Backbone:
């Protein structure tokens, strides 16, 4: 059974989340607040998607080595528990976290091509 691929990209204004089933089917696309309020929000999100879809989640936290990012609660939460669980794996990947999306579509949650590319190139290998 194929796993779910998930990219999480924290940014200055929001955290973008993209989950895909394979290289072409988007199953979840979200723009969340910059930082989670609850200390287990990241782990709960990964577990929830795995339980909902009935498949393990392979996730990548796409974040550059930026001091402002490392002070965030998302970073502290992620660094406190990188690794594997029966429901997910989470890896830090240097990447698209601080790149500004090229275009934002009205009525949507914005552009996610950079995260989609990251998932196909990093998670699928």
Residues:
């Amino acid at each position: 059974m194929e796993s779910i691929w998930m990219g999480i990209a924290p940014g200055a204004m929001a955290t973008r989340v993209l989950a895909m089933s394979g290289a072409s089917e988007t199953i979840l696309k979200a723009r969340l607040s910059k930082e989670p309020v609850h200390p287990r929000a990241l782990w709960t999100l990964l577990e929830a998607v795995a339980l909902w879809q009935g498949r393990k989640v392979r996730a990548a936290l796409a974040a550059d080595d930026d001091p402002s990012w490392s002070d965030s609660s998302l970073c502290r939460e992620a660094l406190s528990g990188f690794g594997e669980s029966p429901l997910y794996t989470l890896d830090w990947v240097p990447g698209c976290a601080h790149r500004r999306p090229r275009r934002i579509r009205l009525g949507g949650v914005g552009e996610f091509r950079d995260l989609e590319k990251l998932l196909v190139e990093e998670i699928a290998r």
Q: What stands out?
A: Residues 4-123 form a domain with the Nucleotidyltransferase; domain 5 fold (CATH 3.30.420). The chain has one domain: 4-123. Confidence is low (pLDDT under 50) at residues 97-107.
